[in-house]
Amino acid sequence: MNTEKLLNLARELECRVMYDEPLSEHTTFKVGGKCTAMVDVASVECLSKLAAAANQLEVRTIVLGKGSNVIFDDKGFKGVVLLMGSSVDQIYMADETTIYAQAGCSLVKLCRFALEHSLSGLEFSYGIPGTVGGAIYMNAGAYGGEIRDVIKSVTSVNKNGGIHMLAAEQLEMSYRHSCFTDNGEIITSGLFRLTPGNYDDIQDKMVELMGRRREKQPLEFPSAGSTFKRPEGQFAGKLIQDCGLRGYAVGGAQVSEKHCGFVINRGGATSGDILQVIRDVQKTVEEKTGFFLECEVRYIPYE
What we know:
The protein has helices at residues 2-12, 44-57, 107-116, 132-137, 180-183, 199-216, 236-242, 271-289, and strands spanning 16-19, 35-40, 61-64, 70-72, 77-83, 91-95, 98-102, 119-120, 141-142, 145-146, 151-157, 163-167, 186-193, 195-196, 249-250, 253-255, 263-265, 298-300. With 303 residues, it is α+β, with helices and mostly antiparallel strands. The chain has three domains: 2-86, Uridine Diphospho-n-acetylenolpyruvylglucosamine Reductase, domain 2 (2-Layer Sandwich), CATH 3.30.43; 89-215, Uridine Diphospho-n-acetylenolpyruvylglucosamine Reductase, domain 3 (2-Layer Sandwich), CATH 3.30.465; 218-294, UDP-N-acetylenolpyruvoylglucosamine reductase, C-terminal domain (Uridine Diphospho-n-acetylenolpyruvylglucosamine Reductase, domain 1, Alpha-Beta Complex), CATH 3.90.78.10. The strands form six sheets. The protein has a five-stranded antiparallel beta sheet with strand order 6-7-13-11-12.
């Protein structure tokens, strides 16, 4: 079986292989069934070989970091999950104002590293519960900042295992979008060009923004952050609230009463519950306001 051939290669490359791994333990929504297998990627070189082999063997794969922007099906994922975790989270100074960070590095770790070196520009991302890879993939943003404001270049692996670098102007970054959402390449690292600043000022800004997150966002419940993209000239949360959907629930999934732009797992939700709330919100808001709320969170089907 081709899947087993890929997993044997992973073991030869000294990657940890886990069968029937619950995806609910690897996503911030805390939902989803089991995957056929999960490979904890040991290095970028291993990833290159696994990507090429998966393509040649026609094995379905998906790359996962902290799972902060995905919903896996309740049945799970029929295929191999390539986990970009602690083995690919290296971070260091490339020069006086540029930080190199691998895809598995958390945004929190990246922000703290920038603070240690008194470098400004990443404060907006402090508290976003994702990885460098995921943040680049979707051009993560908050509080007036976006990854495209600070990214210098990105290294990625294509389906044939080739590793190459793309400069900032080649990344096609726009609102919650990059070239990687279309080309299927796997992000392995990024170079972030920042600005020298004052340590205390940077820290104060990070603390301020984290305080605003805690005050306004339902961080006490599992979620995938902001659920819907912002319609042009509008705010998704306000549209949802104005349509009387604050607290709307299906099973264990609910429109947050604290911030209507978030769908949360208030306890015992299934991915089916969450998807139904999302569909119901989209239908109601479009019928009442004419705006269609595009989901920001990626749904991954079983097969």
